[in-house]
Amino acid sequence: MKAGIRGTIAAKRPKRLPGLTVKDGYTVHPFDEKFGVRTSGLIAGRHLKSGHRHDRHSTAYFGVAPSVFAALMRRWRRLDAAARVEETVFLDVGAGMGRAMLLAAEMNFKEVVGLELNPALVRIARRNLARWRAAGRVEAEKVRIVEGDAVEFPLPDAPTVAFLFNPFDGPVLKRLLKKWEGALASGTNLLDLIYVNNEQESVLRDTAGFTRLFLGKVARSRADAIADYKIMANQPEGEYESSNFEDCSIWRWKGLGKRKPSR
User: Fold this and answer.
1) DSSP for 86-145, written as a single string
2) Residue 236 pLDDT exceeds 80
3) Average pLDDT, whole number, for the chain?
4) How far apart are CA 179 and CA 155, in angstroms?
5) Which of 55, 82, 90, 233 falls between 20 and 30 A from 176, CA-CA?
């Protein structure tokens, strides 16, 4: 009887997403080796199915280089945000397995929220967060992972910095900004947006109310560049490429009617 129960459970165990097996070129990033978490892997957008209408706009899963994240957070903190970090919510839009969320949790944010649509990635992110807590690495007042569509999640009623590592295509980004616009237009919300691999930069340029504070290339550390290159080189289909930097931007909501950057 016991053996039968174990067999049933094993049969129901979900398969790993394409890109997370050795035959798919799965390569462990040093971040995972160092901290005992699981944020490695490269999953093409077409494999990130959840049954939601926005699935077709998912780009891919790939963890942000820790060195790029750290450099952007340093830059953001030098931009004189209207609120202190301890009064600010960090919103990881398209959190995946949670690498950016884990790194943000080491800062003393009021709250860190990871938003992720894919249930398999949510399960992994929650296990990672449990390990992060157990290791005593959480400094933020509160950290949580929300399974669902970012467009359907209300903008926090607190100063917020939203982090996007190119999680979806332009149509969803437009819907997200439109959804946030109502709360932002009231004048009571403060929002900064950090955008890594900013392929949909034009959407933000064309959205009234946002002003760009930074646009440029942010370099990976040598260790991150080597690790990401190995991950990309092991792809069976060679679909994605790696470089020594990420194209990034930082935006701030200034209010409707503000002039947009010219480029």
Assistant:
1) GG-EEEEET-TT-HHHHHHHTS--SEEEEEES-HHHHHHHHHHHHHHHHTT---SS-EEE
2) no
3) 86
4) 8
5) 82
Closest among 44, 88, 25, 33 to 66, alpha carbons compared: 33
Q: Which CATH class is domain 30-38+47-253?
A: alpha beta
Q: Is the distance from CB of 76 to CB of 194 less than 8 angstroms?
A: yes
Nearest to 68 by CA among 169, 168, 197, 192: 197
CA distances from 248 to 36, 58, 193, 225, 261 (A): 28, 19, 11, 16, 15
Bridge partners (DSSP) listed for residue 42: 62
| The pair of three-digit structure tokens given for residue 252, joined into one six-digit string | 């701030």
Geometric angle at alpha carbon 116, from 131 and 141, rounded to 5°: 50
- d(CA 59, CA 119) in angstroms, rounded, equals 16
Identify the pLDDT of residue 230.
85
Looking at residue 3, what is its pLDDT?
41
* Amino acid making up residue 53: R
For the chain, the domains span: 30-38+47-253
Task: Give 191's pLDDT tier (boundaries 50, 70, 90).
Answer: very high
pLDDT at 260 over 90: no
Q: How many residues does the chain have?
A: 263
Q: Is the pTM of this model over 0.85?
A: yes
Please give the average per-residue pLDDT across 165-188, as a whole number. Answer: 85
Separation CA 193–CA 249 (nearest Å): 8
Is 80 exceeded by the pLDDT of residue 167?
yes
